Amino acid sequence: MNRYWNEYQKAIADDHYFYERSCIRQTFFPGSETAFLRILKEELGKDIYDDFRQHTCTGIGYHADIVPIETTMTVVARLFSLMTEHGYTNYVPSCVTSFGVFTEVIHTWQEHPELLEKTREYLYKATKREFEIPTNLVHPSDIIYKFREELAKKMKYRLVNRFTGKPLRVVEHIGCHYAKIFPDKGIGKAEFPYVLAGMIESWGGEVVDYPERRHCCGFGFRQYLIQENRGYSISNTKKKLESMEPYEPDFIVTNCPGCTLFLDRWQYTIAEMEHKTYDKDGYGIPVLTYEEMAGLLLGYDPWELGLQIHQVQAEHLLDKIGIEYNPNDKFKGVSGKIFRKPEKPTILQV
Amino acid sequence: MKDFGFAIEKPRALDTDKTNRELYTRLLKREPSFARCFQCGMCSATCSARNFTDYNIRRIHTLFRQGQTQELDQMLKACMLCGKCTLVCPRGVNLRHLIIQMRKLLNND
Asked: In chain B, whose CA is at the least distance from the CA of A347?
């Protein structure tokens, strides 16, 4: 059994990472990337570099067919040149879309060395910069997975319902571009994705196995970018939510910005359109990033992690785990100023 | 209900736990040979109406078994009741009678 399972693992560097932030995560889940850097630096004592000159990987434009592949390869090359300049070889893109783009571009260069030479030429002509291909390309969730047992020892809380003493039931959702484009780049490959399930099991929770577990979250770029097409997107999300509803999950955790966003925000839209929510009390199912899940269990302040920015509010989940929080600080900014509270939805309870 | 400029589509997957098979059960009582059909498609292959229209007996059989009877009445009107399908059926299903009974059931007869 172990011999076969070894084939489903991937190499993850131990230390010295170059971090690349996501375009959309900083807007939608502003605390997640900061939490990841904090976990790596403070909890694990790792070296990770966060360069302020970084930029988009063009992923959204590329998958929406408005950025040609040659441009994408050159932009990716510039990001790699930042890594090379600082002497790193382990590249860690925050976003699953970026992870997919980088994997695809590196694979293309391996198959077509002439395109790599062209890209080097384009980059040099445009910026006078040079780059090396990373020796280790991993997603941040891979790193958290690798050190999950080490983190478990430092955690203040466990994924256990303190009222019943039973493990929390967690739906895990892997981004399609993490392991479906290049299956061998994901832990557990495309058949048995284990990156989030491993974290949940190590931290005391129970993974929910439901019929549409591997179905798309509904993002799909083209399905969402044009308003008239969004019916495709929301129909996919609804299919997943309906499939998981009978198992009464306590929360959903994902490793992709699109999945977190759509599984979260569409719960509001479905509630407004069809007066339907997917938990017993009408609050919806909270959707967390894996950094938020790890941060909460490590005892970080939920409001510093940015849980108030989510559509489905997480107070019920925090109460179940027993996490302490101050409700008065929910909309307090870093300067201490209290921001205006958002309007309440008509159906979804907050 | 708010208008977001798009609609939620119902999934096209069939939920066999919720399939209404009442009409199919009644049809089997009227034409028991239908239970012998193993969906080989010989009926559709030989059908004259199939040559010139979208009429497809095999598809109609499947939809009837699955309880998806909403559009069947209109589809069945293309059948000319020539009976060639009955002649070629390797399982001896009386298809001509079957189609007549389908029409009757769909019209509450």
From this structure: B1
Instruction: For the domain covering B22-106, report its CATH number.
Output: 1.10.1060.10
Say how far apart CA A269 and CA A284 lie, in whole Å: 11
Query: What residues does CATH 1.20.1050.140 cover in chain A?
Result: 12-140
Residues of chain A above pLDDT 70, percent: 100
A258–chain B nearest CA distance, Å: 19
Q: Could you please state the CATH topology (level 3) that the domain comprising A12-140 is classified under.
A: Glutathione S-transferase Yfyf (Class Pi); Chain A, domain 2 (1.20.1050)
pLDDT of residue A1: 59
Tell the residue number behind the tokens 């609804």, with chain if given.
A238
Q: Which is it for strands A17-20 and A48-50: parallel, antiparallel or unpaired? A: parallel
A132-141, A249-258, B7-16, B36-45: the lowest-pLDDT one: B7-16
- Biggest CA–CA distance in chain A, Å, is 64
**Residue closest to A272 by CA, chosen among B7, B99, B52:** B7
CA A274 remoteness from chain centre = 28
The pTM assigned to this predicted structure is 0.86
Q: Helix crossing, A257-274 with A96-111: angle to 10°? A: 130
Report the C-alpha gap between A314 and A251 in whole angstroms.
9
A223 touches chain B (CB under 8 A): no
pLDDT in tens, A10-32: 999 999 999 999 998 888 998 99
Shortest Cα distance, chain B CAs vs residue A181, angstroms = 25
CB proximity B4 to A under 8 Å: yes
What tens digit of pLDDT does each residue of B73-91 get?
A: 899 999 999 999 999 999 9
In chain A, CATH 3.40.50.11810 sits at 147-329
Tell which residue, A32, A23, A19, has the closest CA to residue A138: A19
| Structural contact between residues A148 and A200, judged by C-beta atoms closer than 8 angstroms | no
Q: What ipTM does the predicted assembly reach? A: 0.78
How far apart, in whole angstroms, are the C-alpha atoms of residue A194 and residue A142? 10
Q: Which residue type occupies A308?
A: Q
Residue of B nearest to A274 (CA): B1
CATH code 3.40.50.11810 for A147-329: yes
Q: Kindly give the residue spans of alpha helices, DSSP state H, lying in A275-326.
A: 290-298, 302-305, 315-321
